[in-house]
Amino acid sequence: MSHELRTPLNGILGYAQILRRSESLSTKGTKGIDVIYQCGQHLLTLINDILDLAKIEACRMELQPSDFHLPAFVQSVEEICRVKAEQKGIDFICEISQDLPLGVSADEKRLRQVLINLLGNAIKFTDQGSVSFRALKIKADVPELLRIRFEIQDTGVGMSPAQIEKICLPFEQVGDNAKKQEGTGLGLAITSQILALMDSRLLIESQLGQGSTFCVELDLPEARDWNVKARETKAGKVTGYQGQRKTILIVDDRWENCSVLFNLLEPLGFEIIEAANGRQGLTQAQLARPDLVLTDLMMSELDGFGLITAITADDTLKSIPIVGSSANVFDADQHKCLDAGAGDFLHKPVLFVEHLAVKQRHLNLEWVYETIATQLDLEQDDRVVDFNDKNYSKSVLEEMKIPDGAYLEQLTELSLAGDLDGLTEAVRLLDGCYSAFAASVTTMAANFEINQLKTFMQQAQSVAARPDAV
Fold first, then answer.
1. Which residue has the higher pLDDT, 422 or 381?
2. Residue 368 phi/psi, 5° resolution?
3. Which domain CATH number covers 334?
4. Spatial distance between the Cα atoms of 21 and 173, rounded to a whole number of angstroms
5. Is the pLDDT at 197 greater than 50, yes or no?
6. How many domains does the chain divide into?
7. Which residue has the higher pLDDT, 7 or 140?
8. Which of 189, 252, 302, 332 could bond 306 through an S-S bridge, CB–CB 3.0 to 4.6 Å?
9. Would the pLDDT of 351 be above 70?
10. In 184-277, where does DSSP find H-type helix?
11. CB distance 154 to 126 below 8 Å
């Protein structure tokens, strides 16, 4: 059912993007395409909610813990939800405790889903006032674990005791009818089920007409080597790069972002320079002449767009490659960033593998892996796709599970059209059994290897067409 629901939706979303970017349309036609795309995205959200609930009820959802940088994770959730709050004209207050551990081990994807569900729900039912998001460390019952408390408080419609008892049941919604029409009523039901898998539960306090407070407490193991594990790729653990030492200027007004990038990149041999806003970034660029600039877009005292424009307008600096980064979910920011003169764009939260691809592309790097023996073993294994390997052989594809003909044909058309955004979004809709195939496509799309993508997709069709193909 997952495949049957997502396949036609992929065609809707994919071709909406193709038409919006490649066709000359009237203003009315453009608005029509945007409506199709927005409705498709809404339908995708509903389908994902229903499938998640079905997966949980069938006991098929399993947590996949990984080590990650907690303050940066919380800040990325904040940035995503702040946009929604600002669109409604309500205040969004975020308080991140300074004593939060740097690294924890948890299912990052599912924890993000829980927090975004709770914050989205608070914003949805708050028409005036504010939504507050707090993350802090409290005393745990088990000394070996860290207890992290997430608290979401709003000044919205609130709930009665009877409504609180039903709010976490599937398809239950409270509030006026207009609010009920905005979703499936599955968000809190899924959130509660995921928290149960995490050995936690959702605590709710609310007063009708005054607002609500949702609390989540999680006991998590500390991950002291989160930055080491983040450098592991399919080709092995990256420990550095060959050649002269490179300098990277990181411009971001959030210490969490600077901290996570410093801890990831400095051990690889990069010299890291930090700046807290665009003006400081421009001064640092003029003084240090870095090899690459990585800048956030939304900052005070000259934002990222202004910094990119200033650097590209300076004859002494314009040759420095610039990468913009933002948690904003709108494609307009990405296009505006590239139009201003940036050579690349990274969405937040950024996977470290994407950072490696961007650094390699703009600095012409050759990575050094953990040991020579490990690297030689990898080179002899044609199943491993290395960042530097440009030869995707059929033997790699033969060991992957490949989507069926109709879906694969749609992906091939997106690659032939050069619609990397549409292609990346389409492979994200694939089930987990296609993870190796999706990872290969995503990596090539991130590296803008369009010709290689076309070859890869054509080979995939050839392999899928074999009589013995499953």
1. 422
2. -105, 130
3. 3.40.50.2300
4. 38
5. yes
6. 4
7. 140
8. 302
9. no
10. 187-197, 226-229, 255-265
11. yes
Q: Are residues 21 and 100 in the same domain?
A: no
Tokens representing residue 173 in the block: 């919604």
Average pLDDT, the chain: 79
Q: What is the mean pLDDT of residues 417-431?
A: 74
- State which residues form the domain around 364: 230-368
Flag whether pLDDT at 177 surpasses 90.
Answer: no
Cα distance between residue 11 and residue 60, in whole Å? 27
- Measured CA to CA, the distance from residue 372 to residue 378 in angstroms comes to 10
Task: Tell me the pTM.
Answer: 0.52
Residues of the chain with pLDDT > 90, as a percent, come to 27
Question: Is 418 domain-assigned?
Answer: yes
Q: Are residues 168 and 28 in the same domain?
A: no
Verify that 124 and 177 share a domain, yes or no: yes
Q: How many residues does this entry show for the chain?
A: 470
Task: Examine the domain organization and report whether 248 and 304 are in the same domain.
Answer: yes
Q: What is the CATH number of the domain that holds 172?
A: 3.30.565.10
Total Cβ atoms within 10 A of residue 391: 10
Q: What's the average model confidence in pLDDT over 146-158?
A: 94
Q: Which pair of structure tokens corresponds to residue 150?
A: 């997430």
Question: Which residues contact residue 170 at a Cβ distance below 8 angstroms, ignoring those fewer than 6 apart?
Answer: 53, 185, 186, 189
Give CA torsion, residues 262, 268, 271, 277, to 10 deg: -30
Cβ contact 9:44 at 8 Å: yes
Contact 303, 288 (CB under 8 A): no
Look up residue 237 and give its amino acid: K
The one-letter amino acid code at 180 reads: K
**CA dist., res. 291 & res. 320, Å (int):** 6
- Give the contacts of 288 (CB within 8 A, at least 6 positions apart): 247, 249, 273
| Rounded Cα distance, 106 and 64, in Å | 7
Asked if the structure places residue 377 within a domain, the reply is no
302: left (phi over 0), alpha (psi -120 to 50) or beta: left
Q: Are residues 130 and 249 in the same domain?
A: no
Contacts of 5 (CB under 8 A, 6+ apart): 47, 51
Residue type for position 276: A
Residues 25, 77, single domain; the answer is no
Who's near 413: CB < 8 A, 6+ residues apart? 14
Using alpha carbons, select from 228, 231, 240 the residue that is nearest to residue 367. 240
Sign for the pseudo-dihedral over CA of 196, 200, 202, 203:
positive
What was the pLDDT predicted at 234?
Answer: 53
Tell me which of 221, 246, 274 is where a domain ends.
221
Which pLDDT tens digit goes with each residue over 65-94?
888 889 888 887 887 788 788 888 999 999
- Taking alpha carbons only, the member of 215, 197, 195, 196 closest to residue 205 is 215
